[in-house]
Amino acid sequence: GSLILLKKREKKLIDVMDPRAPLKEAFRTIRNSIRFATLDKPPKAIVVTSSIEGEGKSFVASNIAISGALEGKKVLLIDGDLRRPGVANYFALTSKSGLTNFLVGDADIKDIQQPSGVDKLSIIPTGPIPPDPAKLVESKKMHQLVKDMESIYDLIIIDSPPLLAASAAVVYGTWTDGMLIVVESGRASRRHFSDIIELVNKANINVIGAVLNKVVGRKTAYYYYQYQYYRK
User: Does the first or last residue of the chain, that is N or C, have fewer Cβ atoms within 10 Å of its Cβ?
Assistant: First the structure.
């Protein structure tokens, strides 16, 4: 899928948008594309990552989770970026207690799941930034957490660090049903993206697809045409 470049003052979460809003429809298309890409076995857990920082992975992960919840699924969004968390900011949540508290044994799993304000969507924020994120990500407890949550939720979305910034994305990818890669339009080269695909293929990760984010120029005309169509 592809997403237009939003202005700073524009709303970032689709749950508060008109049902016919172009951005809301774009995420609905991405959600359906994920389903169609894995028809034989609908994905229970998906990793959303990017190649480098700032391409919009937390924005995409948050709205895919919302789109799933609006469809009626019970969804869990986990902020798995233990270095630079971003999910809590989108939902105005506190990150004082979260994933890291559970992984080090300071909290129970029921205590770190927070309501998002969107019906059927729960969130596990990162919690305090740990001194050694890789150790927690690679722990058996993190792996087991994902598996346990699969029996409770219809869909789990993990917001992961960028592929080139940390090994966490690859680790999460080996535990889950697929990976979605966010790429910023006009920033990443084709060679850059090719190297990323080679990296995940070596790890035998199922790449569901990519989201081209922050699209500008002539391609944005599609969204305005679509909006006018739905208004009619």
Answer: C
* 8 Å CB contact between 87 and 125: yes
Residues 6+ apart with CB under 8 A from 50: 56, 57, 162, 163, 181, 182, 183, 184
Residues in the chain: 232
CA–CA gap between residue 220 and residue 207 (Å, rounded): 26
pTM: 0.90
Report whether pLDDT(37) > 90. no
What CA–CA distances, in Å, run from 194 to 199, 203, 212? 9, 15, 14
Q: pLDDT-based confidence at 52, cuts 50/70/90? A: confident
- pLDDT(204) > 60: yes
Measure the CA–CA gap between 57 and 87, rounded to whole angstroms.
10
Measured CA to CA, the distance from residue 178 to residue 171 in angstroms comes to 12
Is pLDDT above 90 for 216? no
